[in-house]
Amino acid sequence: MDLRSRYLLWINILMFFLGFGLVFRVAAIWATSDSERAGTTSDAEWERSLRSADPVAADMSLTSAVQTALQLDPELAGLPLSVTTRARVVHLAGAVADEAQRRRAGLLARGVPGVRAVENRLRTDPAVRRMPPGTPRAGR
Questions:
Q1: If 61 and its partner were Cys, which of 22, 101, 115, 132 is the partner (CB 3.0–4.6 Å)?
Q2: What are the Cα distances from residue 50, in Å, to 39, 42, 107, 116?
């Protein structure tokens, strides 16, 4: 394993642990109905906790949550998408098959609690195909 691969592995491990709580929060929100969520922490309370957290940790948590949201979506899972976050602004890059997938990715990213804005730089390319699970992505 070369130095770059080790570096990226450690970054991913760090993002995993920092974003662990937020990822499970997002998954739990999607898995429950509004009536079941009535007694849980509100999105506003969640955003307040993100504001009080370290900005870098909050950005990493949001990145992980958005990546999870995109991978859990049946229309977008397996597409070569890149997510970065800075100051709670999510930046989407990569390629999707059509404009509908591009819009869907932006809406999913905006729907994650704590995201201030989304810069959707996804390009449409009809030749884009989904990658099988576990396939390494170029540039990673």
A1: 22
A2: 20, 13, 20, 11
Query: Residue 105: is its pLDDT beyond 90?
Result: yes
**Number of other CB atoms surrounding residue 137 within 10 Å:** 10
Percent of residues, the chain, with pLDDT higher than 70: 55
pTM as predicted:
0.61
Please give the full DSSP string across 5-67, using - where no structure is assigned. Answer: HHHHHHHHHHHHHHHHHHHHHHHHHHHS-TTGGGGS--HHHHHHHHHHS-HHHHHHHHHHHHH
117: part of which helix (H) or strand (E)? strand 117-124
